[in-house]
Design brief:
The complex is a heterodimer of chains A (298) and B (590).
Chain A: H1 3-9, H2 27-39, E1 43-48, H3 51-55, E2 61-62, E3 68-71, H4 76-89, E4 96-101, H5 103-108, H6 111-119, E5 125-130, H7 167-173, E6 178-183, H8 187-198, E7 204-209, H9 213-216, H10 223-232, E8 239-242, E9 245-249, H11 259-263, H12 273-296
Parallel strand pairs in A: 1-3, 1-4, 4-5, 5-7, 6-7
Antiparallel strand pairs in A: 6-8, 8-9
Helix pairs in contact in A: 2-8, 4-6
Chain B: E1 6-7, E2 13-14, E3 22-23, E4 35-39, H1 45-49, H2 56-64, H3 68-78, H4 82-88, H5 92-96, H6 108-121, E5 135-139, H7 143-155, E6 158-162, H8 171-174, H9 183-194, E7 199-201, E8 220-223, E9 229-230, E10 244-246, H10 247-255, E11 265-269, H11 273-284, E12 288-293, H12 304-313, E13 316-319, E14 321-329, E15 332-346, E16 352-365, E17 368-371, E18 375-376, E19 388-389, E20 392-393, E21 406-408, H13 419-440, H14 450-453, H15 463-466, E22 501-502, E23 516-518, H16 521-530, H17 542-546, E24 552-554, E25 561-563, H18 573-577, E26 583-587
Helix pairs in contact in B: 2-3, 3-6, 4-6, 7-13, 10-11, 11-12
The chains are: A alpha/beta (298), B alpha/beta (590).
Amino acid sequence: MSQTIIKDLMPKDELLASGHLACPGCAAPVAMNLVLKALGPQTVVTLPACCWSIIAGPWPQSSLRVPLFHTAFETGGAVASGIKAGLAARGDTETTVIAWAGDGGTFDIGLQALSGAAERNEDIIYFCYDNEAYMNTGIQRSSATPWGAWTTTTPTGEPEATPKKDMVSILAAHGIPYIATASVAYPVDLVEKVKRARTIRGTRFIHILAPCPPGWKTQNDETIDLARQAVQTRVFPLFEVENGRNWRLTVDHADEPVAPYIRRQARFKHLTDEQVERIQADVDDRWERLQRRIDCGT
Amino acid sequence: MSDITEPGRSGRNIPPIAISRMTTEVNLTGSWKYIRPRYEDRVAPCNANCPVGIDIEGYLYLLGQGRTEEAASLLLEENPMPAVTGRVCHHPCEDGCNRANLDEPVAIHSVERRLGDIALASPPPAAPDPARDEKVAVIGSGPAGLACAYHLARIGYRVTVFEAAPEAGGMLRLGIPEYRLPRAILDRQIDRIAALGIEIRCSTAVGRDLPWSELDTFDAVFAAPGAHVGKDARIDGASDTRMVRPGLEFLKEVNAGGRPVLGDHVVVVGGGNTAMDCARSALRLGSEVTVLYRRTPLEMPAIPQEVKEAKLEGVGFRFLATPTAARAKDGSLVGIECQQMELGPPDESGRRRPVPQEEGRFSMIADCVLTAIGEDCDLEFLPEGVEISGGVAAVDELCESTTARVFVGGDAADLPRSVADALGSGKRAAIGIDHWLRERSGEEVAPPDLAALRFGPGGNLSIARERGIDPLHRASPVNEVAGWDAMNPAHFEQAPRHEDHFHAAGDLTATFGEVNFGLSEREFRDEVDRCMNCGVCNRCELCLIFCPDMAIHRRDDGEGFEIDLRYCKGCGLCAAECPRGAMAMSREES
């Protein structure tokens, strides 16, 4: 994609303000900015506890130029559903209501409320920006933390021992109308998916990988490149799922080995070559399963 | 603060829910950073490689923005004849193109040709105000002479060009066949140069028709007579027949409209562009042609595309062979004796020297032999004070000779003999003459800062830079070439290069009409889009998209971006993700 085309495709709305409190090089504000550009100003953001609770700024500040509702960790799905219902009661069917949660608030603490909203097919878009641990509170493991990674609760002597939870499959099992994975390194793909989600009614789930320099122990200027490498190594493939079926890749995926991606992140520096091989085998296995779903359309 | 209030325990009105009423912009997060980004444009390798010194990347950018007129105007700042160079230049720009690391170089010559043709179709330029009183004489109306005249006239000097031949153009007209450079294109290109108020006096050879002393009325002289004397191939018995001819003489005859009878079998001796032109012209006159070259295809100095086309048209090649003797019968040539060669150790040019192979003699049937093994200059007409060394004039970079007010350039100076090098030489001479004349008239002028005028450390000089012309508004330009390591390849997708369309090889021999049709409009646009604008901001806005802190803003005038350092946290994502190496990070002053 030529760059001048990217420029033309990007909506011009500027709904995120400077002076927010994200760490330097954080992917989460990049993701939020792209999502709000795609959704436009008629949007309400529900924010369960996560890094973004801090990024949004302390009272009386807000870094968003759209309404933002801070809420409790486990309630993203429920509060977004309630706001949507409240708006509907006032006759507003046009405002988009989103939940914007981290991986902790999605994979672990908020899973019940999310599952409930998905099961009721609430008319909300649930975004998970996934930095693969509880970064805001000090890098504790979540069920989104990949196998082998160091966190403060899984020290290098006993690193994360289970693979990352397959959140997309859980949501797909709910049969909701639209699910997508997206990446800050593929801004056009991300914006197109969000715009598409906005035209659909019912529960939509978009999972965005958001590399975290302090938590992943990488340089601040590597964030976008890491996100890109996660796609090109098939660690984080970019795809869409409609109604729990019709799985479809949305960008070309190279077949790069995972070792360079793993080795540049100091959270994996204790791993042996054999352990990196194991990660590769797991990535290959997940890719194969994804391919099978794409091939059979379910 | 809120109209929904109820009495709190303290008795004051406290809202039931905290509502933010201001943005985070009060937090000047810029204080966090220890490194800061800046826009810093570099030099694209095509520009650095161009012997003319054209801002190629610049005109490609303007074309990409749909600013075609400005693109043509930027091209014409440095190159007086893009419709010519787009057709005949050996385009070293493409050898440097970073795109080769991704797929294939941008077809710059094809883009330049089309843009040159667009410029040719526009109304001719108005003659500039004669801002200067001085008169300059230019000897020779080849690419060097015309380039010098063009640039001097644009500054405002009064220029007269003296041309020995009946029509202007030098080697462009005398040496290059019409199937490569149609005369209508050349004529229109020269007309536009003359339209700047330049007087071109043809059939006036200085030293023969006009004594040098007549040039005393001019304030400066630029001599660019070209190299017109074919080197002697030293073939025994060649003088027994008129059918062993210097190739250049043959080309001049054909290019002037002559159609000499060469016979069935023509042997062309040499491996340069003159040899290719002779071979393909002889083919068009109905002969069967074999090129005899004493080295291998790898060492051929001809433009590879010319060799390829010659082969496609049916020219035969015999390598590692050189003629030794001509066999004539009653004044007619019947054949030549040849020596088989092999490559020995490298000579001073770095190419392996061909040496005779023992027992390797053979003969060939030949009705005509055209020798094209290089040309020498005839510099007899120059005044005595001009030092000649190795057959060419000794000059400095701005073409100033060892005699006051006399400048020498083009093939008559020590340069690669190409149209592009000649155009670049003429431009340097114009810069040199302008400075020399200003100094002489008592103006307080600093000598031209050659390092600053160059495209990169080794490129040719830019006259637009000297005149401060930069429609791209480049940000803090650094005169450093942006190589492949400066690029972020993740942001480019492969896209195959479009090649020029050629006349079908089978139809060629009957015609001297142009064989290369260039690119279609769509292909031209594709090639413009393939340019990666190496080292230079092309307003792609990826820095805006990837800045987590919303600290990059479009400038009001549309020419680039501003970084709001009050909020930039110094993460470096903008510089790391810049596709073309047009940003840099530097440490904060403590």
